[in-house]
Design a protein that fits this description.
Layout lengths: L1 H14 L1 H5 L12 E5 L5 E6 L9 H4 L9 H15 L6 H17 L1 H9 L2 E3 L7
Antiparallel strand pairs: 1-2, 2-3
Helix pairs in contact: 5-6
């Protein structure tokens, strides 16, 4: 009797089309394949989930730039700090500024919000140039 009861359960599951079609709905990726954001200068930028390895991913090729106008003395201060720090460790102006800005962001928005945003790795999709 048990074998017959089991086959009826499977038959009922197979006939339930809604169940069969929606069987993996809980595993669906909530993030769309590509998203478009508008930059401060109103240009459209397309982003997609990162599928590259850490070695293949590049800030230059897959990231976005942040341009900050500085007074000459402000840049001189930053360069002097980086020069002093580079005597102790291998550091560039870019990595110095990036780490300082991200550390400050973590303090402002909190570690949990920072980690949640940082774990969602995105890459810029470069527009293909037409010939």
């Amino acid at each position: 009797m048990t074998g017959n009861n089991t086959s009826n359960k499977f038959k009922a599951a197979r006939e339930n089309k809604d169940f069969v079609q929606d069987v993996n709905s809980d595993a669906a990726d909530p993030m769309p394949k590509q998203i478009t954001v508008t930059s401060r200068n109103k240009s459209q930028i397309t982003l997609e989930q990162n599928t590259l390895s850490q070695r293949e991913r590049s800030r230059v090729k897959n990231g976005r730039n942040l341009t900050i106008p500085l007074f000459a003395e402000e840049l001189l201060i930053i360069e002097t700090a980086v020069e002093s720090l580079s005597q102790k460790e291998d550091v560039s102006i870019n990595s110095f500024i990036r780490s300082i800005v991200l550390d400050k962001c973590k303090k402002v928005i909190g570690k949990d919000a920072f980690d949640k945003l940082n774990e969602n790795k995105l890459n810029v999709v470069k527009a293909k140039k037409e010939k």
